[in-house]
Amino acid sequence: MAVFPSEQWFREVREVYNSDTSLHSGGGGACDSKAGLGIGDKYYKIEFAGLECANVGVCSESDLSEADFIIEMPMDAWVTMIKDVQGNGKASSNQTLNSLDLDHEDGIARSPIDDQYRQDLFYRYNQNFQDFFNASSRVTTTF
Amino acid sequence: MSEAIDMQEQHELDTSWMEKMGEWGAKATPGKRGLTLDDIKVGSYGDLPKNSDNMTGRPRGATARPDAYRVGAYSVHTLSEIWLENAEFLYEEALQRQWSSATDVPWHTLKPLPDAVEEAECLLCTFFNEVEFVAGDVPARWIAKTTPDYLEARNVLSAQVMDEARHMDVFRKRALANGGGLMRMSGATSGFVGSIDLARDFTEMSTRLHISGEGAVLTMFRMGELFGQNDAEKTMYRLCAQDEARHVAFGVMHLRFMGATAPERCEEIECYLDEAEDQLLAGQQNPAGTQSETSEALAILLGGGVEQYDEGHRKLLVIRRRQLKEYMKRVISAGFSTRFENGRSPIPAAYASTN
Amino acid sequence: MSENEPSKDSETAKPIQGVPNPTYEWMGLTNEWGIRVKPGEHGLRLGDVNVGIYGEVPERWEDQTRRPRGALPRPGIPPLPYSLRSKHEMWADCAANLYEEAIQRRWIPATEVPWDLLAELPEDVERSVCQICTELSQCANTELEIITYWQDQMSYGYFEVKQYLATATFDCARHLEVLRKRALSNGGGLGLESRGRVNRMILESSGGWTEAVVYLYLLRGTYLTRLLAGLLEYAHNDAESYIYSHMLEDHARHLTYGYDHLKYAATHHKGGAAIMRTLLAIGEGMFAAEIEDPIVKSAMAIIFGGGIEGGRTFGMERYLLLIREFLQDYLELCSWLGVDREETLHPKLKQYLEI
After folding, report:
1. Based on the structure, what is the number of domains in chain A?
2. Domain housing B131
3. Beta strand A2-3 with A31-39: parallel, antiparallel or unpaired?
4. How far is B330 from chain A (nearest CA, A)?
5. Domains, chain C, ranges and CATH?
6. This prediction's pTM
7. What residues pair up with A109 in beta bridges, in sequence order?
8. Among B31, C202, C223, C286, which is most exposed with the fewest C-beta within 10 angstroms?
9. What's the number of domains chain B is made of?
10. CB contact (8 A) between residue A102 and residue B223
11. What is the pLDDT of residues C275-326, one digit of tens each?
């Protein structure tokens, strides 16, 4: 049982995501991206290479200065999203990363250097990130 | 008497060409992403001519033959006119991320909708079907005009032609799959002066198509997750959004390259941006524009019905605001930030007025 | 414009300034409503939604706008230069199915070709393979350029064909990519460019798309099928087998469209068959001259013969057999099309049948 958020939790999700290609939905596919996740006051880096989530781990905010984009929400928003995934097997339509980004006036994804081209990678690779978080439905989670 | 060929004489093996081949010994090796177009830019095969004199359509790096026929009247033959630094990357990404409207959209999740909502969705699908016609036709035209020396950039455009065909297809399918039909055409994509398909310069076209037009449509597709009424629609819009983001990326990166390598053209590009912004604000080809019937349809969808039109329109204004903001940031990313600082662009004022 | 009341559902909503009163004048504007096509066992395919008026494909499409077929027109929209507006100028019944098939059978050279299984070949064989890759590259380039040139001129009444051709555009880009990758990944390089007689003939088909298809698919395309099949038969490793087999599959789709279209044109356009006959009479001479060029002939002979030595004898015999098989295919196809060429085949091609 893993606690969200924690490095252990992300590693378990990564293992599920990488080991089962049925979790990679149509419109996904290979992507190369180094992104960050801001969860409350904690930060994680997450890296996709090809068809896999290559790496995920805890880091500091300054470590993410080179990230393509950072997905950042308050802790309770993340918890709501993960609970929704846990309960439904995948994100409900109002709890997808895309929906959450649209619901927030300034969005939830930002480029640390304020470069829209890099921020657009969140749109280009949206399906991969969504599939990754949907994979967390198979990880027994506590909060 | 048989005129059978004397095989030995007429079909003697000729190996003289072997000494005239291109640079030899190229051994590109696959990396983590397989063997990509970037990986094969080895030796002189990776050299990009600033000006291409390839008039025969030969592959870049192939040996020219003195007796080859000139077939290429390529109007795009300088690097700055079409190049972008990550062309190889975008092309390979496009190949990886193809999808099928027939099988990747969960059509079985469509359920009958209230009449007004179905009409609104069908109007929007008719509009998007029409808009994607331009986005497919016009890059195709420019492929034929571009020297094969810039194969990587051409291949990205070829991928776009494929993506747009898929978009045309998925919106037509949606309009005809849930008790509706196609509605009236918008006419927004026709041949008005300043429109995408009348552009006589590639960068002019790309500015209007990729940065302005597709940038606005990208926001719309992303919004599909909010106004889509079922999984089929949400999936359809989400998948289209990914493709669209790639096309927008082409435009931004090309403009960035152009600005950096042909600074003498910057003022010209600013004029194209002036026109594109006028169109963005006027609502042409932008269904979230304030004056189009598609904006009424969107407001119905965003609100969830005619009765909630006002609420839907409020959400539409939020979309418009985001379109304008992201447009500005893309143009800044492309290296043309000054226009937002010196008062040339009307977009900052328009953005402020949406607050 | 009026100030609207805030939404009753929202406690914090402010009045929306300047929300235009919707007119809804677009509602009800449709040619046919109530269409509900459900997905079948292969999903929801393009041809499936050709129901009611949406499936009516007229012999002539006068509309020069981007009106989706079945959508209502809008008065006052300026025309666009769609020069191909008759069904016989592009139609093939199989286009919609081929479009879906192309999407389902997509492949990714970077990651699906087992590049690590390429193994060093004798130099003469490697040079020959690279030369053929260069030649085929130029064929793919010509195909890409002629398709994208004409695609832009095809009206939207026959969107199935445009969508299918978008997949062919993408296929050509993929072929350009994979052939270049093969040439640059095994210690070789690119070869000499093609002299380009037939390329020029194809690209100069300015009379119409049908005329281009005669040369592109009936004449040269039928030859390329045999060439690719020969390369597959003599592939040196699994990487080459993968490349050639998948190229052959893509190419087969292109020919299916091409032959189907020519059949439609020959049977639905008065004088169409006679025009084809004229074109072929000229084209056969060009084609015969092209295949006499020693470079492709010798390279293929070396591949078939396993080297220069074998190329002089068995290899050359095998290549000449390939030409004969191509001509037999070609004559049979011409007969099927009602454009019989057996008696009038160009003498320089006829002699290959007599070897």
Report:
1. 1
2. 79-351
3. unpaired
4. 5
5. 87-354 (1.10.620.20)
6. 0.94
7. A71
8. B31
9. 2
10. yes
11. 999 999 999 999 999 999 999 999 999 999 999 999 999 999 999 999 999 9
